[in-house]
Amino acid sequence: PFDPAAQVGAMPPLGFFDPAGFCKNGDKDGFRKLRTSEIKHGRVAMMAATGGLLQHFIKFPGFEGVPAGLSAVTTAPGTYGFVALFLVAGALE
Question: Taking the complete model, does pTM exceed 0.70, yes or no?
Answer without folding.
Answer: no
